[in-house]
Amino acid sequence: MIEEESVRRLRLERLKLAGNDPYPARVERTHTVAKFGQHFDDLLASGTVATMAGRMRTIRKHGGLTFAQLEDGSGTIQIAIRRDHVGEETYAFFHDTADMGDFVEAKGTAFVTKTGQQTLDVRSYRIITKTLLPMPEKWHGLSDTEIRYRQRYLDLIANEQVRAIFKTRARIVTTIRSYLDRHGCLEVDTPVLQIIPGGASAKPFKTHHNALGADMYLRVAPELYLKRCVVGGFERVYEVARCFRNEGIDHSHNPEFTQVEGYIAYMDYERLMTFLEEMLREVIVACGLDPAAVPFKGNLLNFADAWPRITFRDAILAHAKIDIEDYPDRDAIAKQATKMGVPVEKTDGHATIVDNIYKNYVRPNIVQPTYLIDYPVEISPLAKRKASDPRYVEMFQLVYGGGVENVKAFSELNDPLDQEERFREQQAARDGGDEEAQFGDDDYVTALKHGMPPTAGFGIGIDRLAATLTDSHNLKEVILFPTLKPV
């Protein structure tokens, strides 16, 4: 690598000594690769000069003829530099100064090679960015996973399929925005730095604001601020939100992640299920997939048909063979969980233990898209109780693919007194050592006292959805710059 850089530095000096600026600010380009291909026949017939710019992926010399593959953001085209056309001196200078990976501006006309390949016949060129380090593995691909994640720019250069993943991810976000906008939702921004990190059961990252002399947290969710917007009169709001949770890193978790959260007044969780089914089918189609057969982890997931709905209690009964209503207190469920091989920490409350039983016995066994509905009230302190059984809340999650949880949604709790009591219960859990119990937020309770209409809300993990629709089995594959341990 050091030797390669030394050679390229010498070529850089040759460029400068010859009066060439190897890093000019202005570049001429009349045609992208895609445009050149679209208008090739007209360019060929007219002999019009086209100017293209991009990175040289390969350079192949054949005596007085050199072929190079020129790549820009729209594709790759072959260019040809002929000694007879550019002159002996210019031809020799190209080989004395150019390397694979350099960016060039090339002017020429269209022609077809003997093998029928569309080509730009170069009449003049200049190097517009001289690269000092070689491209990964001489363009034969980059396979070292650690390098791929740490130096994502090399991964993007070397692996076209990786670039395709992130184009799909962008399409997912664009389609979700379009769907929500069409349905009257207003996109808003809420604070990332928060005094009270509410809205999710997760351990937050803590920081300090010097000017205010106050400890602050990176948000774990935008939920409580978005619902303040509903109180203020915006009936349908959403945010594409970057969130942070101080938790472990594995194939399905990254401390920094992106989600879409939205809240719709005068809607309940049952109608929201249908609303989100329709939205996700639209997203799947926009990504070029068949909703009835989405490939993921060796299975074909069927998102086209109505997704089954099963209660949280019935799911545990079916897969773990216990009825959670038989274990109403913490010690009883802890004893049963231990017997089942589910780890139990001293600081785990009843809700955490029940949730861990679900994660161990139920979640891995759900392959086709399924709505799990009606969770115990202690699992979701922000959801509205079921009128028919106040021990449970009107909450649902979309689960599929042998354990992927993506959509989480519920009819929102808008009773300020009930919310105040549940915050007290969460604070008691925190005082008992549960670092993932939610913080109480007195101002949010005050907002609810001013009145929030019946509302349904949802959160969708963009990273997990992108992983699903690109059949990626590690979130690092769909996050451009994932969090990694420092070297």
Please give a structural write-up.
The protein has 487 residues and is α+β, with helices and mostly antiparallel strands. It has two domains: 2-134, Nucleic acid-binding proteins (OB fold (Dihydrolipoamide Acetyltransferase, E2P)), CATH 2.40.50.140; 155-308 and 368-477, 2-Layer Sandwich (BirA Bifunctional Protein, domain 2), CATH 3.30.930.10. Helix content is 35%, strand content 26%. The protein has 16 helices and 19 strands. The strands form four sheets. Strands 6, 10, 11, 14, 15, 16, 17, 18 and 19 form a nine-stranded mixed beta sheet that branches. Strands 1-2-3-5-4 form a five-stranded mixed β-barrel. The protein has a three-stranded antiparallel beta sheet with strand order 7-9-8, with no helix packed on it. Strand 2 and strand 3 form a beta hairpin. Helix 14 packs antiparallel against helix 15. The longest helix has 23 residues, at 160-182. The radius of gyration is 29 Å and the shape is elongated.
